[in-house]
Design a protein that fits this description.
five-stranded mixed β-sheet, alpha+beta, single chain, four-stranded mixed β-sheet
Length: 199
């Protein structure tokens, strides 16, 4: 896992410092993505969030992360979305150990599934997300979920095309930090990653 200086999420620019081998293999593929996304550090944004919405696209009232997380009794429902900019709407959320976690995941993008499919994969504690998605890139026939790494996964959604939704439900594990990623090739490197904290 490569975390940028603000220690909050994977940074595509910091990911370029991976290793000489990774740079030779991935850099030629990722440079066009970086130019399309226009990513860069911003002193204005302590959370390192890149908002590319135009004023016409921006709602009058911005949503708080709490607007996407509801707890009723022992069930926490997380409304998670992905889009064509390869970002989740949430970078982090917190649940209680032993509680039921329900993630309702929607691909709000417009691009076809074959070019821009999205999923959410909740990884077990200590799993190297970079190594996981590297292996996942070779598992196209199983929607980028490598069968030989099933023991590293807590739960995962289907690979979704534009406008599709899937719901996954699981019991929150022991307290700790658990990454969730999109395993579609290169999406982790573009920033499609977050952390589920279990208290």
């Amino acid at each position: 896992m490569f975390i940028c200086k603000n220690k909050r999420k994977l940074c595509t620019l910091c990911a370029l410092e991976l290793s000489p081998i990774m740079n030779r293999l991935l850099l030629p593929l990722l440079i066009p993505v970086f130019f399309l996304l226009g990513c860069g550090d911003s002193a204005e944004s302590p959370t390192h969030h890149h908002d590319h919405a135009t004023p016409a696209d921006t709602p009058a009232v911005s949503a708080s992360p709490d607007d996407f997380i509801k707890t009723e009794g022992d069930v926490t429902t997380v409304m998670l979305t992905g889009n064509d900019t390869m970002k989740y709407n949430l970078e982090a959320f917190t649940v209680k150990a032993g509680s039921t976690v329900r993630i309702v995941f929607e691909n709000q993008g417009k691009m076809p599934k074959a070019a821009m499919g999205h999923n959410v994969v909740v990884l077990k504690s200590g799993v190297d997300s970079t190594a996981f998605v590297t292996a996942a890139a070779k598992a196209r026939e199983t929607d980028y979920i490598p069968a030989d790494l099933a023991d590293q996964i807590i739960a995962y959604s289907k690979l979704l095309g534009p406008g599709e939704t899937d719901t996954i439900e699981f019991q929150a594990p022991d307290p700790g930090a658990y990454e969730f990623v999109c395993s579609f090739p290169a999406h982790l490197y573009a920033g499609m990653v977050g952390v589920m904290t279990v208290e």
